[in-house]
Design a protein that fits this description.
9 helices; Sigma_reg_C_dom; transmembrane helix; Putative anti-sigma-M factor yhdL; elongated; transmembrane; Sigma_reg_N
């Protein structure tokens, strides 16, 4: 027993150094901090690569802009005023929307869109319009009405009275609903002295504003005037009709996103594209702009069934 005690006493016990313990604790603390510092910039780089090199930003921007040209009558966008900011796994897209009233373009809305990856999670829209079209059109509150429909919610006679009361030194925007279906080229020849800026195209659903599934749809159409804006999809277009049809096909794979960006929540693109391809491009209504006197002179036109007055500005007509 004495021998065992003597042998056991000769075994050296490990010496715990306080300094070593302190270094180990610091290492344990620094490791997650370093990892976190590496994760954040790496995540930002992946986010930037996802949007920039994966063309996601271009796709999202194209879809957002194209659907506004097709569903928001008489509007345009400016490329140089698209602002993009990237944050962790997300992108903010901001831009202004313009409307032609008379001979000038006026800013009418500001869009601020927040995407998380491909999903639009927040949309803010600030409007400068004095007369705001329906945000979620129904079967009866359209500003452009197919000839097969009954009376709209607005009173066309009252709209003509308001127009008549405006000073002659003003230019106006007006939404015209026709008494039949027409070719756009024929409409332009029948409405001299003004600009036909946007035409609503008949897609087989506008008789009752219902799709084959019974869902309420909204007007879609295209800008009629030549558009030299660099950003415009209609810039240097040889056929606005064919460009319009191609744009519908371009946004069809992203129809859910397009409906979220636009005020019109049901586009039914597959059904409407098929109808246009089979039946061509007829219009049942158009947006025009020009001097108050020239628009008022259209009151007795056999072409026009209803008129809804849009924006009004001081004289800027130089044609």
């Amino acid at each position: 027993m004495e021998f065992y005690k003597e042998q056991n006493s000769n075994i050296k016990k490990p010496v715990v150094n306080a300094k070593t313990m302190t270094v180990s604790k610091q290492t344990l603390i620094l490791i997650p901090i370093i990892v976190a510092l590496l994760i954040v910039p790496t995540s930002y780089m992946l986010t930037f690569a996802y949007y920039a090199f994966g063309t996601k930003s271009t796709t999202l921007m194209d879809t957002a802009s194209k659907v506004l040209y097709l569903t928001e009558p008489n509007t345009a966008l400016e490329e140089m005023e698209f602002d993009m900011e990237f944050s962790l796994f997300s992108m903010d897209l901001s831009f202004d929307q313009y409307k032609q009233v008379g001979g000038e373009q006026y800013p009418i809305r500001r869009y601020d869109l927040h995407f998380v990856l491909d999903d639009l999670v927040d949309k803010e829209m600030t409007s400068n319009l004095e007369r705001t079209p329906p945000k979620f059109p129904t079967q009866t509150n359209q500003w452009l009405v197919h000839p097969a429909q009954g009376m709209p919610e607005f009173n066309s006679g009252h709209e003509w009275q308001v127009l008549a009361g405006l000073p002659d030194e003003t230019v106006v925007e007006a939404y015209l609903s026709f008494n039949d279906l027409y070719q756009v080229i024929d409409v332009r020849s029948e409405l001299p002295g003004i600009d036909v800026v946007w035409a609503a195209i008949y897609t087989g659903t506008e008789d009752e504003m219902l799709s084959a599934d019974g869902d309420v749809v909204s007007p879609i159409g295209y800008p009629v005037q030549p558009d030299r804006t660099y950003w415009s999809p209609f810039r240097d277009s040889m056929s606005h009709e064919e460009t319009f049809l191609q744009m519908l096909k371009d946004i069809q794979p992203y129809e859910e996103l397009a409906a979220e960006v636009s005020s019109h929540k049901n586009l039914e693109l597959e059904e409407r594209i098929a109808f246009i391809e089979e039946n061509g491009f007829d219009t049942y209504g158009a947006v025009i702009t020009g001097p108050k006197r020239e628009v008022e002179a259209l009151k007795d036109s056999a072409l026009i069934r209803h008129m809804k007055l849009g924006e009004v500005k001081l004289w800027n007509w130089t044609k």
